[in-house]
């Protein structure tokens, strides 16, 4: 078996950290999508939650996600230092000491879980703790450097936020929230493998066994198409469970068909351009699905309230 590990490298001298460096540790771009899907869970869940508690729940999801990102950057500082996409992150660039990043992440993780439990409920808190633990221990420390299925299994961590938001309102896990989990879970592999295709050199240098590195681009492209095809019926399923309306059914069908088309173009491509386009569209795809669900729900609530008046 090929040894895909690499030597840990030392960072350069720290010249003084700024608040911006610590914000960067939180991976704000990744956090924004996590927060958005977590908010969707709160909006779509049946029942009522006080707006202040809803805001606290969203904040805890955001902080928990950011804490996971900071711990991930601490652990991955060696491979980040040899990848062009990550070499300018705060730790490999020498702007933040590794031990400070770790302490920052651990403190935020603990605070997010405790506040969620005390202010909202312990079911949502337990799911948040499980999400952080899964991302840090299962994905970052165990799977990422050992198997090309790292994204497939580890993607569960990014799929939990709607379930956390749902539990914040209902105090439990129900079938619709599991469906929202599955939607993100199945979306994750084609999303990240599209990135891995045009960043293949980075992952090869770092020794990270992403699917294109281990199985090759052609096999990766076929699996990407397979996941988009499986995702297609899952993405329209919220309509049949009653959490999505007709607009969502039409919108998700069109978006899903285009996502499959993107995967077909990647499969036939001889350059990286379609993979880059699919990666960009995949983010928009997930955002629009959850925006449609929330938009319909909010409009329905306004119309119902207006009709009752």
Automatic annotation (TrEMBL):
It is a multi-pass membrane protein. One of its GO terms (biological process) is heme O biosynthetic process. Its main location: membrane. It catalyses: heme b + (2E,6E)-farnesyl diphosphate + H2O = Fe(II)-heme o + diphosphate. Keywords: Cell membrane, Heme biosynthesis, Membrane, Transferase, Transmembrane, Transmembrane helix. It comes from the Bacteria. One of its GO terms (molecular function) is protoheme IX farnesyltransferase activity. InterPro entries: Protohaem_IX_farnesylTrfase (IPR006369), UbiA_prenyltransferase (IPR000537), UbiA_prenylTrfase_CS (IPR030470), UbiA_sf (IPR044878). It is found in: Cell membrane. Its EC number is 2.5.1.141. Carbon 2 of the heme B porphyrin ring is defined according to the Fischer nomenclature. Converts heme B (protoheme IX) to heme O by substitution of the vinyl group on carbon 2 of heme B porphyrin ring with a hydroxyethyl farnesyl side group. Belongs to the UbiA prenyltransferase family. Protoheme IX farnesyltransferase subfamily. This is Protoheme IX farnesyltransferase. It comes from Azospirillum brasilense. The gene is ctaB.
